Amino acid sequence: MTESLSAPSRATSAGAVPDVEAHAALLDAFALQIADVLGPLVPASEPVALLDSPLTPNVGDSMIWLGTLAYLERRGLRPTYTCTNRTFSPDTLARRIGRGTILLSGGGNFGDLYPDHQEFREEIVTRFPNHRVVQLPQSIHFESQEALAATGRVLDRHRDFTLLVRDQSSFDVAHRAFRSPAILCPDMSLALGPIERPEPTTDVVWLAREDKEAHEAHEPVASVPSGVVRLDWMSDDLSSRIALYRRLVPMLAHRAWLRGALHGLMSHEGDAVARASVARGVRLLGQGRAVVTTRLHGHLLACCSASVTCCSTTATARCTAHTTRGRTRRRSSSWPTTRARRSPARWRSPRPNAPSRPLRRSVPPRAPRQAGPLHGPRSAPPRSRRSCPRSRSPAS
Q1: Residue 30 belongs to a domain
Q2: pTM surpassing 0.85?
Q3: In this structure, are 144 and 253 located in the same domain?
Q4: Same domain, yes or no, for 234 and 116?
Q5: Is residue 34 in some structural domain?
Q6: 56 touches 234 (CB < 8 A)
Q7: What is the C-alpha to C-alpha distance for residues 297 and 220, in angstroms, rounded to an integer?
Q8: pLDDT digits 0-9 by tens, 258-283
């Protein structure tokens, strides 16, 4: 079953025509909500690092990365350090970040489906216990309850970790399993704003994911109707620049001594490859007058480019989870169009009817825990954040 989730469209003799102004207003509302959530968490006066840049040809990962850079640029911030999960240099990060904030890129890899990213995330939290660490909007999916509990133990030991999630089900999981603050926030790709799209050449583009999150087997290519182009976007363009970057990353994964020296080059090339990836996605989806997709970022890219779009669920239900709440308030989105001080309290609190509270108090106070091998003996509950300011020194 599919659901129409884009901004309002106008019906004409030629078919549905997207309302460009409605799309622009929708993107402005998302941008305001992102700014309201991240503003108190990312001080403009301190350095910021952005970790876990995309390594795969998945356009959605590149959209998230570029959306985050766009948000930081609007704040007058430029990351002092960026890396992938395979080119990370802890010494370089500690030297460049100083007393600043560490941002972990958003997406859908929080959980045990993508262990490389999860292990990297937990490594950062463990190595830098005295820095503020903000996990940008993620979807949470664990197949194993043991893995979920193990992640909770790692996160709960950190003094200043904040988890942003992009759907209600992930928020519920985070509230039950972790003691760290969890806050709902739109996907960072929506900070890209409006994107110009090419002139369509066919009726429908069917962007059907074919990875391990695919919901079911697809119909044979021969059964795709005339006027419908079916594709996925997990293949790079043939470019020497992209090919060089893809080769350098695994080389640096086994040569840690080179990572600091090549950091500037890899950061610059990684951003360029991400821009090329998003341009490829716009070109692919722009072929169709309408887009049908099981990919969340297929839907979001269509929204950014003012395309008529329809999405259906995947195995992890991301595509509909991020967007279907909007039908209760407006056709396309449930994210408020006003500033946070007037936004619904349920976006800030685990209880739907609770009054608004400051961001850092969005979860119940910590309860005392029993002594154990991971935490050591405790004779009293930990002090509140107000009475225990975080240290600014980098981790050793």
Answers
A1: yes
A2: no
A3: no
A4: no
A5: yes
A6: yes
A7: 24
A8: 777 777 778 888 899 999 999 999 99
Alpha-carbon distance 269 to 291, whole Å? 30
User: For residue 129, how many other CB atoms are within 10 A of its CB?
Assistant: 15
- Under the banding of pLDDT at 50, 70 and 90, the label for residue 246 is confident
d(CA 141, CA 181): 18
**CATH code for the domain of 45:** 3.40.50
**Looking at the structure, do residues 53 and 173 belong to the same domain, yes or no?**
yes
Distance CA 113, CA 151 (A): 13
Count of residues in the chain: 396
Domain for residue 380, yes or no?
A: no
Alpha-carbon separation of residue 173 from 78, 118, 141, 284, 369 (angstroms): 32, 16, 9, 35, 20
Residues 6 or more apart whose Cβ sits within 8 Å of residue 192: 63, 66, 67, 70, 278, 304
Q: Do 173 and 277 fall into the same domain?
A: no
The answer to whether the beta carbons of residues 38 and 186 sit under 8 Å apart is no
Domain assignment present for residue 280? The answer is yes
Domain that holds residue 263: 2-24+195-328
